[in-house]
Amino acid sequence: MSDNVSSRIEIAAEVGDPATDPWWEFRQVERITLELSQGYKYSLGKYSRFFIELENQRFLATRCDYCAKVYAPPRPLCPVCLEPTAWTQLSGEGAVETWSVLHFSPGSNADVRALETPYVLAYVLLDGADTLFPHLLKAPPDQVERGLRVRVAYSGEPVQHPIHQMYFVPME
Ligand SMILES: [Zn+2]
Q1: How far does residue 172's CA lie from ligand 1's centre (Å)?
Q2: Between 16 and which of 21, 81, 110, 168 could a Cys-Cys bridge form, CB atoms 3.0 to 4.6 Å apart?
Q3: Ligand 1 centre distance from Cα of residue 84 (Å)
Q4: Which pLDDT score, from 0 to 100, does residue 96 have?
């Protein structure tokens, strides 16, 4: 066992009356809590610069020099021309094209599980982009409508996955 792993046994629940219940000791629920912390290196490959610039609060997309399409989320290769794209910066402002209201937080990612429900998953057409960017929109579900102007906001807090460094908020 490394220094980063620890365990302890705890009684999770006490039920019944030991004076009258001969099985009382066996009814106690024992729980072993294992705590594990682990550092690891993770590569996001050709998308890495997008996430690095999110930390710098800059929103990047990619642009194809041949057909002029702008991809947000970025694509390293234009799917139309099959040519490598180039990085370009967007303002991070855009408009809601469509959205879903989610009443539970699926998945194993703690960033997603921590979301209060219901929450809004919006497809945003960013100014200057040709593709829709799906992401969390922190807004009351009943105030979301097509064309709602939104902007990228940056969490500035530690996150499990760098995509959660950003989310959308309505513009004032
Ligand atoms: Zn192209």
Answers
A1: 35
A2: 21
A3: 8
A4: 98
Distance 146 CA to ligand 1 centre (A): 28
Q: Which residue in 67, 69, 121, 72 sits closest to 92, CA to CA?
A: 72
Distance (Å) from CA 67 to ligand 1 centroid: 4
Q: Specify the 3-state DSSP secondary structure of 24.
A: helix
Exposed/middle/buried for 46, CB within 10 Å: 0-12, 13-18, 19+?
middle
Element (H, E) at 170: strand 166-170
Q: How far is the CA of 81 from the centre of ligand 1 (A)?
A: 4
CA of residue 98 to ligand 1 center, whole Å: 25
Mean local confidence (pLDDT), 113-142: 95
What confidence category does residue 1 fall into, taking pLDDT thresholds of 50, 70 and 90? very low
Residue 100's identity, in one-letter code, is S
Distance 61 CA to ligand 1 centre (A): 14
The answer, yes or no, to whether residue 47 has pLDDT greater than 80, is yes
Structural tokens at position 44: 């996001």
The answer to whether the CB of 92 falls within 8 A of the CB of 152 is yes
